[in-house]
Amino acid sequence: MPPENPARGHDRFDDDDYPAYTMGRAAEMIGATPGFLRAVGEARLIKPLRSEGGHRRYSRYQLRVAARARELVDQGTPIEAACRIVILEDQLEDALRINEELRRPATGSEESSGS
């Protein structure tokens, strides 16, 4: 097998979706317990990838999502509701981004047509 291209390995550090963190490290980073990470996984907020040995691995994006759920739970929101809120917030953010992208070309074409 050829050696890994060092430049491509570096790309993983910049990839928000690369599953770089073990469960213990991920829990420590967001100030939660491994049980909390399992619970948000069971609630289908995040789905960690598995290493070849079957261990859960988390990405930076997943940690941000789990940290937001932890904030809500810390404020007294039940975990299932917190997960649903985070999912809806994520969907709203995507919809707003798409809306903005769709508006940009329409605005540009109206200005260029002279109307």
Which key terms come to mind for this protein?
115 residues, single chain, Multidrug-efflux Transporter Regulator, Chain: A, Domain 2, mainly alpha, 3 strands
Explain this structure to me?
The chain has 5 helices and 3 strands, in the order αβααββαα. The radius of gyration is 19 Å and the shape is globular. 66% of the residues lie in helices and 6% in strands. The chain starts with 5 loop residues before the first helix and ends with a helix. With 115 residues, it is mainly alpha-helical. The chain has helices at residues 6-14, 23-30, 34-42, 60-74, 79-113; strands spanning 21-22, 49-50, 56-58. The protein has a single domain (16-113), classed as Multidrug-efflux Transporter Regulator, Chain: A, Domain 2, CATH 1.10.1660.10. The protein has a 3-stranded antiparallel beta sheet. This is MerR family transcriptional regulator. It comes from Streptomyces atriruber. InterPro entries: DNA-bd_dom_put_sf, MerR-type_HTH_dom.
Contiguous runs where pLDDT drops below 50 for at least 5 residues: 1-7
Question: Separation of termini?
Answer: 61 Å
Largest β sheet strand count, sense and barrel closure: 3 strands, antiparallel
Strand percentage, roughly? 5-15%
CATH class: Mainly Alpha
Calculate the mean pLDDT score and round it: 85
The overall number of domains is 1
Label the structural class. Answer: mainly alpha
Strand order of the largest sheet: 1-3-2
Count of alpha/pi helices = 5
User: What is the CA-atom radius of gyration, in angstroms?
Assistant: 19 Å
Element string (H = helix, E = strand): HEHHEEHH
CATH architecture: Orthogonal Bundle
Q: Tally of extended strands?
A: 3
